[in-house]
């Protein structure tokens, strides 16, 4: 009788999982199990011998014990339950990632921008951030009032904008940060650094994200680039 302990058996030749019928198929008395497809292939196209003991295969020595309908249903129920448990475990293992942020090497975060420059057309132009490379996406956050550093060294509370610029290439983002951080634009000192992003809620729930343009993470980030929200808040 088929045992649930054998559920994950694979054919050692084709590496495919043995289906329900093949799991009770014993082609050789030595006990070396393969699927019936490989058994037929060896007999018809190769040397016709067992890969383990070199005994010649034949219909007479092959054993096959049919599985009852009840047994098949039991196997399928156990497999579904195991898949459900595995999915629940994956979701539990990802739950802590909801509190994590990952540094994106193609995402540039700029603060201190004058509100009059905070338009997608200006930011994307070759006179501004478009000069460093092709931009995939721009997100603008126009703050009402924020601490602003001026070229004369003074700091005041002024209307300001923060911008997320996603470049197609990581190298272009690095160039932008190197050129922009500490530079003066419209009389204000800009600060630029790599931006961070979070994990997609669908990924956290082990589901397929329906948005093909989703910019959140759908795979584990590098440990060196991962930081918690608390660490991010405290700098």
TrEMBL record:
<dbReference type="GO" id="GO:0016567">
    <property type="term" value="P:protein ubiquitination"/>
</dbReference>
<keyword id="KW-0862">Zinc</keyword>
<dbReference type="GO" id="GO:0030014">
    <property type="term" value="C:CCR4-NOT complex"/>
</dbReference>
<keyword id="KW-0694">RNA-binding</keyword>
<dbReference type="GO" id="GO:0003723">
    <property type="term" value="F:RNA binding"/>
</dbReference>
<feature type="domain" description="C3H1-type">
    <location>
        <begin position="194"/>
        <end position="221"/>
    </location>
</feature>
<dbReference type="InterPro" id="IPR000504">
    <property type="entry name" value="RRM_dom"/>
</dbReference>
<dbReference type="InterPro" id="IPR012677">
    <property type="entry name" value="Nucleotide-bd_a/b_plait_sf"/>
</dbReference>
<feature type="domain" description="RING-type">
    <location>
        <begin position="11"/>
        <end position="54"/>
    </location>
</feature>
<keyword id="KW-0539">Nucleus</keyword>
<feature type="zinc finger region" description="C3H1-type">
    <location>
        <begin position="194"/>
        <end position="221"/>
    </location>
</feature>
<protein>
    <submittedName>
        <fullName>Uncharacterized protein</fullName>
    </submittedName>
</protein>
<feature type="domain" description="RRM">
    <location>
        <begin position="106"/>
        <end position="197"/>
    </location>
</feature>
<dbReference type="InterPro" id="IPR034261">
    <property type="entry name" value="CNOT4_RRM"/>
</dbReference>
<dbReference type="GO" id="GO:0004842">
    <property type="term" value="F:ubiquitin-protein transferase activity"/>
</dbReference>
<keyword id="KW-0175">Coiled coil</keyword>
<dbReference type="InterPro" id="IPR000571">
    <property type="entry name" value="Znf_CCCH"/>
</dbReference>
<keyword id="KW-0863">Zinc-finger</keyword>
<dbReference type="InterPro" id="IPR039515">
    <property type="entry name" value="NOT4_mRING-HC-C4C4"/>
</dbReference>
<dbReference type="GO" id="GO:0008270">
    <property type="term" value="F:zinc ion binding"/>
</dbReference>
<dbReference type="InterPro" id="IPR003954">
    <property type="entry name" value="RRM_euk-type"/>
</dbReference>
<dbReference type="Pfam" id="PF14570">
    <property type="entry name" value="zf-RING_4"/>
</dbReference>
<dbReference type="InterPro" id="IPR001841">
    <property type="entry name" value="Znf_RING"/>
</dbReference>
<keyword id="KW-0479">Metal-binding</keyword>
<dbReference type="GO" id="GO:0005634">
    <property type="term" value="C:nucleus"/>
</dbReference>
<dbReference type="InterPro" id="IPR013083">
    <property type="entry name" value="Znf_RING/FYVE/PHD"/>
</dbReference>
<dbReference type="InterPro" id="IPR035979">
    <property type="entry name" value="RBD_domain_sf"/>
</dbReference>
<dbReference type="InterPro" id="IPR039780">
    <property type="entry name" value="Mot2"/>
</dbReference>
């Amino acid at each position: 009788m088929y045992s649930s302990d054998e559920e994950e058996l694979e054919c050692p030749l084709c590496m495919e999982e043995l289906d329900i019928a093949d799991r009770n198929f014993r082609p050789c008395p030595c006990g070396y199990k393969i699927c019936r497809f490989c058994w037929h292939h060896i007999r018809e196209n190769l040397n016709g011998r067992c890969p383990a003991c070199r005994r010649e295969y034949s219909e007479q020595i092959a054993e096959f014990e049919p599985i009852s309908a009840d047994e098949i249903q039991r196997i399928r129920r156990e497999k579904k339950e195991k898949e459900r448990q595995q999915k629940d475990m994956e979701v539990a293992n990802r739950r802590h990632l909801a509190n994590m942020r990952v540094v994106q090497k193609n995402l540039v975060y700029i603060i201190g921008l004058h509100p009059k420059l905070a338009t997608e057309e200006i930011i994307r132009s070759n006179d501004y951030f478009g000069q460093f490379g092709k931009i995939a996406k721009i997100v603008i956050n126009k703050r009402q009032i924020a601490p602003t550093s001026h070229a004369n060294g003074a700091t005041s509370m002024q209307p300001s904008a923060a911008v997320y610029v996603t470049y197609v290439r990581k190298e272009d983002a690095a160039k932008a940060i190197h050129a922009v951080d500490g530079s003066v634009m419209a009389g204000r000192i800009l600060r630029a650094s790599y931006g961070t992003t979070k994990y997609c809620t669908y990924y956290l729930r082990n589901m397929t994200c329906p948005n093909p343009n989703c910019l959140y993470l759908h795979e584990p980030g590098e440990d060196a680039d991962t930081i918690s929200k608390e660490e991010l808040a405290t700098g």
